[in-house]
Amino acid sequence: MKLTDDVRFVRGIGPKKAELLHKLGIDTLADAVQCYPRGYEDRTAVVPIFELLDGEKFCVHAIVGAQPKTAHIRKGMDVTNCRVYDKTGLLSLRFFNNKYAASVLEVGKEYAFYGKVQAEGRQFVMIAPEFEPVQAKEKTGRILPLYPLTAGLHQTDFYKITDAALAALPENYPDFLPEAIRKQQQFPPLGQALHSMHRPQTLEQAQQARKRMAFEELFLLACGMKFLRTGRADKKGAHLRDLSLREFYRVLPFSLTGAQQRAIEACTMDIAEGKPLSRLIQGDVGSGKTMVAAALCYLAAKNGKQAVMMAPTELLARQHMETLQPILHKLGISCGLLVSAMRAKEKREIVDEISSGKLSVIIGTHAVLSEHVQFCDLALAVVDEQHRFGVNQRAALTEKGENVHLLVMSATPIPRTLALLIYGDLDVSIIDELPPGRQKIKTYAVGEQTRPRIDRFIDNQCAAGGQAYVVCPLVEDSEATDTQRHSAEQTAQRLKTVLPHRRIGLVHGRTKTAEKEQIMRDFADGNLDILVSTTVIEVGVNVPNATLMVVENADCFGMSQLHQLRGRVGRGSRQSFCIFYGADKGADARERLRTLVHTGDGFAIAQKDLEMRGAGDFFGTRQHGLPPLKLADLAGDARLLEQAQQAADALMARDPQLKTAPLLRQRIVRLFEQHGEGSFN
Length: 681
Ligand code: ADP
Ligand code: MG
Hints:
This is ATP-dependent DNA helicase RecG. It is an enzyme of class 5 (isomerase). It comes from Butyricicoccus intestinisimiae. InterPro entries: ATP-dep_DNA_helicase_RecG (IPR004609), DEAD/DEAH_box_helicase_dom (IPR011545), Helicase_ATP-bd (IPR014001), Helicase_C-like (IPR001650), RecG/Mfd (IPR047112), RecG_dom3_C (IPR045562), RecG_wedge (IPR033454). With 681 residues, the protein is of the alpha/beta class. Helices cover 39% and strands 19% of the residues. The structure holds adenosine-5'-diphosphate (ADP) and magnesium ion. The site of adenosine-5'-diphosphate has 17 residues, from helix 10. Adenosine-5'-diphosphate binds next to helix 10.
C-alpha cells in the first residue's frame, strides 16, 4: 500500500471502521502515521508468579494445570476459572463471559498471560488476562502502544492501520526538520523516529522519539510565528508624519498613567522608525489599554488615514465606541461602528463610508474582516482581547490595507516562556500600573455553609447602590454531570425567591444575541441589580457601578479566568468585593482560591496556574488562536521549547524566507490554514 491510500483499504478495516477513523481525521495511511500513541504499556518483563503484587498488571509465563471450569453465576454472567503454574507458584485466571478463552487453552501447554493481579486470601488471581502462546509476542513480551480510542474502534484497529502505514513508509520519508538541526539535537531520522513512536523496542526509544516529535512540533510553531512576522518586517510601515499627541491629551477626561504613556511612546517610536508597528499591549484587566489604542487611532486619523479596532463581542465593540466617540469627536475625527447584527441598510451605509474614507476610525467585531469591507486608506489595525481571535485573523485584518500598523491588546497574562512562543511575532509593552484611585478588590473564598450570609451581602451591596454579578459554570441544570455544579438558570430562580425585591437579569451562551445585548445594557444602565450569567461576561465588560462579583463553583475554573472575572468589578471608585464559592472542595481548590485571595497580580496568578495545572489550559486555539499541540507539553517541555525557539531563531536569521527549507515553509502555511478561517500569506 501507499501512504496516500485510504485507511478503508487496510486489511480488516471495513467501510464502517474507516468512517469512524475519518471522523478522527485519519483518512489516509499518512494520517495514521501521525496518530501517535498516548502512552505505552511495558509488557517486556516476565515476572515469576512468586513475585506478583496485588493490584498491578503483570506478564507471566505459565502452564495450564487443569481444564478451565465455567460456572453460571446468574443470568447473563458466566465465570470461567483456570489454574496455571510456573516454577515458582500457582495462579488462578478468571474470565467473565468468555467461553472462548476456556475453549482455546490447552492443558499442559505454556502461554504468556498479561493482566491485572488481585490478591484473594493467600492466592493471586489474574483478572480477564490477555494471552497467547509464548512464542507469539504480539500481545506480550513487547512494549504495547496505546492509541487514543473512540467508541467502535479498538487498539487492534489502530495496530492494523499503523502497521500498514509503517510498512508503506519510504526509506527517505521527507523531513521538514533541517538536517543540520536534527544532527545538532542528535535526533534519529524521521522514519526511524516514527517506527520508534509506534513500535518501540524499549521505553527509552519511545521517549527519544517522542522528544524528537515534540521538538519538531514546537520548532514548527516557533518558525511559523517568526515567519508571520518577517512577512511584515520586510515591509515598510504606513508613513505618519505628525506624531504629536498634545491635542489628544488635552481632551482626555483624565491624565494617563506613566505605564500608558510609555506604551504609547513605544508605539510612536516604532512608527517613527518607518517599521510596521507590531506590538502587543499586555496589561491586567482595568489597566486602561483602550486609551493606548485611542491615542494611535487618533494619530492615524490626524494623518489623513484610517484605523480599525476589532473586538471579540458586539458588546465590547459598542463599549469601545461609547468610550472613543466623545473623545474623537472633540478632535474632529469621524468614528463609526460595524457589527454583524446591524440592519442591512445601515451596514451598507457604514461600509460605503468606510470605502469612501468618510469614516476615519472604525470600531467593530469580526464583521470588519468581511470581504465586503474595503478601506480607503487603512494605516492601523487594533485587535482587542487578542486571545479570542486566531493568529490568522489578526493577519487578515492587516491585509486590509498596505503597510498597516498592528496593535494587539490582551489582558491574559502569560508566563515568559509561553509568551515567547505565543507572541513570538510581536514586540511587547506591559502596562503594570492601574489608573489612580482604584481600591484593591476584597476577595473571599467561601464554602456552602456561608451561603445565607452571602445572599444577605448581595442584597446589602444593591441597597447601597451597587450592583452584583453572579457567575455560574453551567447554563441549565440538565447539563450537570454531577449535581454539585450550579447552573445560571437555577441560580437566577433561587435568587428571585430569596431576594424578590431585586431586579435580576440572566444571560448565558444560549441567550439570543439581541436579547443578551439588551440585558447587558440594562445592567450597564443600572436597570438591573443583579446579573446572573455564565462566563459570557468574562471579557472586557465595563460597568463601573458593579461592586460585587460572586462566582459559583469557582473550583471549576482556571485561576487566570477567575482573575479575569474578578476584574469585572473594582472599576469605579467604590470598594469592590469578590466571593469565590468552592473553598470546601478539597485542598487543591482551597490552595488555588487562597492564591487569588492573597494576590491581585495577574502575572503571579498565571504563573501559579501554570505550575498547578500544566500548560494545556493556556494553549490551544481557544486561548490564543494557535494550532493545538499534539505531543509537546509546554510546562513539562520548557527546556525543549527553549531549544526549539533557539533553533528557529538561528534558522530564520539566516534564511528569513525559508528558501533553504521549502518543506518547512509549506508546513507552516498549512498549519495556519488548517486552524482558522482567515487567510495567511
Ligand atoms: P482594560 O485595560 O481592561 O481594557 P479599560 O481600557 O477598559 O481597561 O479601562 C478601564 C477603565 O479605566 C475605563 O473606565 C477607563 O475609562 C478608565 N481609565 C483608563 N485610563 C485611565 C486613567 N489614566 N485614569 C483614570 N481612569 C482611566
Ligand atoms: Mg479592554
